[in-house]
Amino acid sequence: MQTPIETILTFGLSDAEMTLVDRLVSSFEIETTPLAIATVRNFVKNNPAKKIDLVVYHVNPEHPKQDRVIQLIRDFVGEIVPFLILVPQEKMGELKKLLQAGADDFVELPLNEERFSISFLILLEMGQALPRYRELRPTVAVDREVPVERDGWSRVVDYIQDGLSYFAPKSLIRSVRPENISDRWQRLRRLGVGGFGTVWLVKEVATGRIAVAKTPHSPILNISVLRSAAILKRLVHHPNVVHLVEVVKDQGRFILVQEYAEGPTLQQLLEKGVPALDKESYFLQLLSVVSYAHKHKIIHRDIKPENVIITATGRLKLLDFGIARDLSWQEADDSSAGTVNFMPPEQFLGKSCIASDVWALGVILYIFATNAVPYSQVNDAYPADIEVEVESRAPRLINPSLDEQLDRIIMRCLQKDLDMRYHNATELESDLRASFPQFGMGRILPD
Question: Active-site residue numbers?
Fold first, then answer.
């Protein structure tokens, strides 16, 4: 079987944008092919040996019907090819229409190179993993071909590049039964259902590797999936993050396939009782991963015991970056999403920031120190209606034997005034270690 020539199609990119694309694929065996809209049909028809891995289209601000142009390109390249658009400011008002026309993800102009690089490489990885489903391309525009045999077609590409070393090689691909996720992940059992979608335990057919697949309820959530994937890619080198395996497109939805971390949640362990030594170990691991995220300008926004897994070896894994934000290229947005008993006042008001995660860490440390929460509110479904002026009780009022310095650290985490709270997890970690060099040995927190 002939090895397909892998290709990226570009439309209307500036010289600077093409230079960036060429740099990103410099270590790949892949072509970049600039095309005009009028030539795409003939290119697809006349180049059956070429496998299109990605389309990048610079939206033309002078053209009144850019959604029709996107739809036309989509019709020719097929349903499964990843499609990235660059959107000028004057076209952002049409973004919903452009995405509905067939684009998978967008980058707002002027171009943020880091933002573009992340989306580009995630979509390229998806495109390279896709089979050559030529039969999915429309027969009206392109002559129907006998589908190329997919069984056995697999390849590993080294994604390690200067400045982008958090991109890992993709997994081997092999096609199997069509009822599985993207023809290569076999569903084993459903792990849960939430507002975002369904979580499945899955097995990679080619290797037998076990993973978790987070499947959104609707393609409307595709952009959220890609944003989560981008954040997980940036944090891939930290051992306390549940790592992203890949993103696959299945029935129009983007699905996150992640590492399977087996073990109880921290909440389940707390209900049974956790020894002081383990509490201190878990908290230091949690501080480490959140500090690492903050150094990358990423806020989690939903740190809580239910989102922490403890493996059989005692390794902590922080889960669910579904509402996380990468502040290097995103605004924090005005969402009040989160879990009310771990949310600071500013997050209730839709003004979350990096220090908002510090509040959640303080609540967890408070629980470790007192076996109680600083305050309790039950209206979790309507955080906008929560009383934001609630006062946290000092932990020494519950446990008088608690060290005064630890009481001070916890209460600084829970300061409503952002200027008085630790600005990030790194500041908190530094103060904790300076105040308690022996923290981690089971001598500071109670059993």
Answer: 302
